[in-house]
Amino acid sequence: MNALITGANGFLGAWLAKALVARKDTVACLLRPTSDISALAGLPYTRLDGDVTDSASLERAVAGRDVVFHLAGIRRAATRDEFMRVNAEGTRNVCEAMLKAGGKARLVLCGSLAASGPSSAGRPHVEEDPFHPAEWYGESKGEAERIALSYKDRLPVTVVRPPRILGPGDHENLTFFKLVKKGIRLEIGGGPRPLTLVDVEDVVDLMLVLADRPEALGEAFFVAGPQHLTMDELQDIGARELGVKTRTVHLPPWVLKGLASAADVVTQATGRKLPLNRKLARQLLAPAWTCSGAKAERLLGFRPRRDVVDSIRRSARWYQEQGWL
Predict the structure, then answer these.
(1) Are the C-beta atoms of 203 and 160 separated by less than 8 Å?
(2) Where is the NAD-dependent epimerase/dehydratase domain (predicted)?
(3) Contact status, residue 160 vs residue 210, Cβ threshold 8 Å
(4) Predicted pLDDT of residue 43
(5) What is the C-alpha separation between 132 and 12, in angstroms, rounded?
(6) How many other CB atoms sit within 10 Å of the CB of residue 24?
(7) How far apart are CA 186 and CA 22, in angstroms?
(8) Where is 47: in which H helix or E strand?
(9) What is the DSSP letter of 226?
(10) Residue 190 lies in a domain
């Protein structure tokens, strides 16, 4: 296929680009001029300078494509308006550009479990559940999905909703591995809090299925296996892989909230992004972040193939080999 990836220099985007190149597909990447492209090093791709907030650059980028994988977005911003401008309205810009290009290319949008919000401890989210995001990022991802699917009578559109993703190159879970490397195991009061975790290559595999199968059109799919872990278990597996003995630090919820608020004050005053913030604290204190992959298995015959325990081990080894720990 002739594919365009927005957000190709990110963690998931780079793994998707590698998979497309391995299949000998034609790959173009929409990148901002200031983007760090080290994750794409050595890959044969066409670089297109642009931004999802720049309609003119999008119109040039989507022309002649078979599939547009829309992954670009922001995970951190100071205001709700900024999340909406990039994540939601950026998706509208992509859809409008694709319509102007003829409306024949398929759009595969990367949504997020964050749009659904926390689940209950005993019931994973299913795709039919209404959105109940816990913060602005999740709200903007939910709006992006609503916008994309509003075009389904004019564009071939489908959506993947990953939960927390693991794998070499991931920054989102790095903080927990850094703590473990220092011999610290955080235990937050009020647990356990189950999580759905998924390997980055399983997310890529489902995105490639969504790019091809007619049954995927007009639909959204979680990508999830049957196994749920807790943050405590993630830390324990990481510690064993790194050969580290940890001491447990018990952290009451009110202490975590206070530390997160203080960290946000420091970030606002200095511009330095700290590992802890109020968004992360709310995520950690939620009763559960779980979702079901039953719909993808039922409609597409897709199940994640990678054991998340092995994904944690693989991440830990990679962090250590790269000197990130």
Answers:
(1) yes
(2) 3-218
(3) yes
(4) 96
(5) 24
(6) 8
(7) 39
(8) strand 46-49
(9) S
(10) no
Q: pLDDT confidence of 283, banded at 50, 70, 90? A: confident
Distance CA 289, CA 125 (A): 8
pTM: 0.94
- CA neighbor of 260 nearest in space, from 276, 249, 284, 274: 276
Single-letter amino acid code for the residue at 249: V
Report the CATH number at residue 85. Answer: 3.40.50.720
Mean pLDDT score, 20-47: 95
**What is the rounded CA–CA span in Å between residue 317 and residue 322?**
9
Query: 229, 225, 223, 238: which is closest to 288 by C-alpha?
Result: 229
| Cβ proximity of 173 and 164 under 8 Å | yes
Neighbours of 263 (CB within 10 A): 19
Residue type, 123: R
Residues counted in the chain: 325
Per the domain annotation, does 151 fall within a domain? yes
pLDDT in tens, 103-159: 999 999 999 999 999 999 889 999 999 999 999 999 999 999 999 999 999 999 999
Alpha carbon distance 256, 250 (integer Å):
10
Domain region containing 203: 2-170+197-227+289-306
Task: Give yes or no for a cis peptide into 192 (omega within 30° of 0).
Answer: yes
Tell me if 7 is assigned to some domain. Answer: yes
Using CA atoms, how far apart are residues 325 and 323, in angstroms rounded to an integer?
A: 5
What number of CA atoms fall less than 13 Å from residue 222's CA on the CB side?
25
CA distance 185 to 249: 6
Question: Rounded to the nearest 10 degrees, how much is the dihedral formed by the CA atoms of 216, 110, 165, 315?
Answer: 110
Do strands 46-49 and 26-31 pair parallel, antiparallel, or not at all (unpaired)?
parallel
Q: How many domains does the chain fold into? A: 1
Q: Residue 100: CA atoms inside 13 Å, Cβ hemisphere, count?
A: 15
